[in-house]
Amino acid sequence: MNTWELIATERARLVEALTKLEDDQWTVPSLCTGWSTKDTLAHIVSTAEMTPPKFFAGLAGSGFSFGKLMARNVATVGADPVPRLLERLESKVHDRNSPPGPTSSWLVETVAHGEDIAYPTGTTIAHSEEALVAAADAAKDTQPLLGAKKRVAGLRLRAEDVDWTAGDGPEVHGPIRTLILAMVGRPPVLGDLKGDGVPTLQARS
To answer: Could you say which DSSP state residue 123 is in?
Structure first.
């Protein structure tokens, strides 16, 4: 599959998994600092509906602050109830809209933000192995915004559930979805990883 096909697969599987959450699970803090699970879903929907012209217009309207733009989009999109947000995401499964940036970054976002919701709610998303591997490959080299490249520099990452490794140095190993979350800076998952490199990763998160 190409990257957009992987994104479509992940969006569809995300919708399928999230429809099973109870109402009270949508107020739980997500792994994104300051965002509830519903806020994170609103961000996923906002990204899926974004286009470059809409992005630049919104950025200008937010004083060219990326953080303010994201907060504004989450507040606006998040005004809808969860069932409507899931409908909106489902309608965008096969769309190829996005903000400016490499397509691989939107795969990382879809996987990571899905897990930002799934991890604290004990939900399992039936990720495609191909998508997880592609997301991990993209995440490890991403520096702007996510800071993953510096975070994992000098470490060897090894997935226990799929055939994936990256880097050299003290090892950090665990499920690939947990490694992805660790790479993009989610400290709560570090306790689920093992290896001599975990203390270094903890110090950088």
So the answer is: -
